[in-house]
Fold:
Amino acid sequence: MPTKVTIAQHILAANEAIAQELRQDLGARGLATINVMSAPGAGKTTLLEQTIRRLRGQLAIAVIEGDIETSNDAERIEAAGAQTVQINTRGACHLEAHMIRSALEQLDVGQTDLLVIENIGNLVCPATWDLGEDLRLVVVSTSEGDDKPAKYPQMFATAQVMVVNKLDLLPYVDYDLAKVKREALAINPRLHIFEVSCRTGAGLDAWCEWLLTFAHSALQEITR
Amino acid sequence: MPTKVTIAQHILAANEAIAQELRQDLGARGLATINVMSAPGAGKTTLLEQTIRRLRGQLAIAVIEGDIETSNDAERIEAAGAQTVQINTRGACHLEAHMIRSALEQLDVGQTDLLVIENIGNLVCPATWDLGEDLRLVVVSTSEGDDKPAKYPQMFATAQVMVVNKLDLLPYVDYDLAKVKREALAINPRLHIFEVSCRTGAGLDAWCEWLLTFAHSALQEITR
Structure:
């Protein structure tokens, strides 16, 4: 159906234009921005809760929380101590740049260093939509099978960071961690990989340290 | 963007027309059809492998296997003993009725009782697309969090069956099974719910027995 493809390209091009404006605007406000993506239930929100708690006092984080329905995740993030705005897409499978632009109007980002966008739980559609971010993070988990990079390659090709969560479940699942890392790096050799358990805290120090360095160097870049 | 909505409605209406034709065609061939959906890694393929093995000799099953990339799952299903056709969507986030119509041309369904369509791993988009099926099955797992019905309601509203997989992981995760069932039934009071572990085999006999009864009664309905 070539008509369908052409329309989709127009919509994507319009999104891309808004995303580029947004990237400039976020830079002008001195905000480093991360787009966090994963399958439903891989642990995006839990990773953010842990990250916000650990970096309190070192990095001021605000969160735009994307969900199809409910504000459960935004409530969890606020309880962890970050300013939060909820986007409910009412059925839509991904966030788009215009939604981020609107959500930003509801945030007071004067004191914020890092803006985190938690996308809809979906390993497919969000990979196609630029949200004006500086960094794309994909979260996978040891309980969702070790074939995800091979089966959903675009997500891994367009991310800069992969966090493997739920290390604590490794003894109870059939998950070949070496294979996941090998296949993800075959798709994207520059991927930074972190292995964590948000339940036990394993690996979170290394991740938070890296994020802090990233945010500070992005801010230096932005304000230079 | 009303234009976008109108276009999407046209595409969905075209799919619906093909799905209705397909439903008649599948009925005329004496095939009961199931559309199996879930988040990535919830265990659709493993559930199908176990179901095919357990029902061998009682129910002739053929599978249309949907994946964005790879034929890993089709190979697993063939090894379990079912005739299989692979659809690779090359980036698309769901199956559509015209893809099923094309895939059917590659299947010899003369001796088949039950056609199973394994959709793309995605809790959002597949819910909107009718594939001509008689039954919609959503698989959730105990490691993906107990908020999935509330956060992805359309999937649960349009399914007739929910299988909760990975019961064996319950001791190691924070998962309130009663809450999941309660919230799923609040969205869809007629949902049939099965609790299984494809790893230990728990609950699979009850599921297979129900499926056998469903397939036989659907076939009686079809051939009446």
Q: What stands out?
A: Chain B has a mean pLDDT of 94.
